[in-house]
Design brief:
This protein is of the alpha+beta class and 474 residues long. It is built from 15 helices and 21 strands. The protein is elongated.
């Protein structure tokens, strides 16, 4: 029944608003005009290829209590580009897996709004401070960690309030993910507003009288005409009576300013993060008042219940090669001890004209970076979805990536979810658009389109876990 309902949604879905950020399109000479003639679109059974590569994860999913949920937390970490950053697909996958196996926590979150970009809609971040941010696609730096975006502020104190909107995401453990080389962010136990007197420069003002010229005013205050013109940014010697001139910046005055002072709570610190246990909560506040650089890479939210923690990280425009340039990303990723990595990249590579062999080489490097820290990590790779170039030409690059991913699965020891085929392949793009599953650029998908991809991925994992249970006689 689920398969039938999904196919109906795929071909008769309603249009929903909302899509991830649009990538820059590039003219591709080798692209082929999409066949607009009606052709049968065969969608095979939804499942995973080379599932033995994630056998340990599938086995864990079957170790459920009598209530049907897992007794231990199982962590899935999903890495991708803009559609993962927007959390439309992953939110659906997260919801379905947690409904099936239990909710172990919201997982990784990042204050995208403070970095002036889009992110998950189920969590909000507030701050009175201004932040600077750099994305991993613009080059790595020492603070480019798990979020793929480095976030910092020079203002002190600097504070961020985090609030979740859904009671099902209540947590009792928070980890602040941050580079060990920077000043630490800390949990706030409360804040007080304090007044403080500071000395600030006070300019001395002269009101121009009739008959006065710049020379006489300058002599009166013991400065040169050129200094007087520079202070006031004058381009000529002409002045008018009744106007004012700044004649000195050397005087000081005392001014009272108000500033929050934060109280620290007890916490546990490690090289990777600072953690704090809570009673069931939906919000918290962190701060830093150190003068040193204080980079923030995000937060991990967990609860004491068993079940799935489904984290996701995406960066608009990202490719495997971008992630590969940041050692801190891999160090922090593997420090979260994921049981399964899910990788969803390829569309941006196609707009860079990357060949399938180059794409696989970058994927291989990514996997090697992960296994150099966690040799036994299990990996599930999702093929990129079908798309068009310039709304007309079939994107043959993503088709070649999908084929290459399937061919190299056993060699590189990963499982594959073939979303390219599940969405109908290259010939289905126009049909998907007409049924409200794709954005106007025929590259990104609509909210409904991403939700269908998330549903299909979750169902493929659940189906494969059930088949695994039957194969071992459980």
């Amino acid at each position: 029944m689920k398969k039938c309902s999904l196919i109906l949604l795929l071909f008769f879905g309603f249009i929903f608003s909302g899509k991830a950020q649009v990538t820059d399109t590039t003219d591709v000479e080798s692209a082929v005009a999409e066949d607009i003639v009606a052709v049968p679109i065969v969608i095979p059974e939804n499942g995973l290829k080379n599932p033995k590569a994630i056998a340990k994860f599938l086995k864990t999913l079957q170790q459920r209590e009598t209530d049907g949920f897992l007794s231990e937390r199982v962590h899935v970490f999903h890495i991708g580009d803009s559609h993962i950053q927007a959390d439309l697909q992953t939110d659906k996958t997260r919801t379905l897996l947690q409904e099936t196996y239990g909710n172990g926590g919201r997982g990784f979150i990042f204050p995208h709004r403070l970095a002036r970009t889009n992110g998950s809609s189920d969590v909000s971040f507030e701050s009175a401070n201004n932040f600077s941010a750099q994305r991993i696609i613009n080059g790595g730096n020492a603070y480019m960690g798990l979020s793929g975006i480095s976030l910092s502020s020079k203002e002190r104190p600097c504070a961020v309030k985090v609030s979740l909107k859904d009671s099902s995401d209540a947590f009792d453990l928070v980890r602040i993910v941050q580079p060990k080389s920077t000043a630490r962010w800390q949990f706030s136990a409360g804040k007080t507003l304090e007044s403080k007197k500071v000395i600030v420069p006070k300019p001395r003002i002269h009101k121009i009288k009739d008959g006065e010229v710049l020379g006489s005013i300058a002599r009166k205050y013991g400065i040169s005409v050129s200094q007087l013109k520079k202070i006031n940014r004058l381009k000529s010697d002409r002045i008018r009576a009744g106007k004012t001139l700044i004649v000195s910046k050397s005087e000081n005055r005392t001014r009272s300013i108000k500033k929050y002072k934060y109280a620290t709570v007890d916490f546990n610190a490690s090289e990777t993060w600072t953690s704090k246990e809570f009673d069931q909560a939906l919000q918290f506040e962190v701060f830093t008042d150190s003068d040193d650089t204080s980079a923030l890479n995000g937060f991990m939210l967990e609860n004491s219940d068993g079940g799935i923690i489904y984290s996701s990280v995406g960066v608009n425009g990202a490719k495997f090669s971008d992630y590969n340039q940041s050692p801190l990303f891999f160090q922090q990723l593997l420090a979260t001890s994921p049981d399964l990595l899910v990788l969803s990249l390829g569309t941006n590579e196609s707009f860079d004209h990357q060949s399938a062999s180059t794409y696989i080489n970058h994927l291989t490097t990514f996997i090697q970076n992960c296994r150099s820290i966690h040799p036994d990590i299990e990996i599930l790779v999702c093929t990129p979805p079908p798309s068009l170039f310039k709304r007309r030409y079939k994107n043959t690059y993503v088709e070649s990536y999908a084929n290459a991913l399937l061919l190299n699965a056993e060699l590189l020891r990963y499982a594959v979810w073939d979303g390219y085929t599940q969405l109908g392949g290259g010939n289905a793009v126009s049909r998907n658009y007409k049924r409200g599953l794709m954005a106007a650029d025929r590259v990104h998908y609509s909210k409904l389109g991403y939700e269908i991809q998330g549903t299909l991925l979750a169902e493929a994992i659940i189906r494969q876990a059930n088949q695994y249970a039957k194969s071992v006689g459980q």
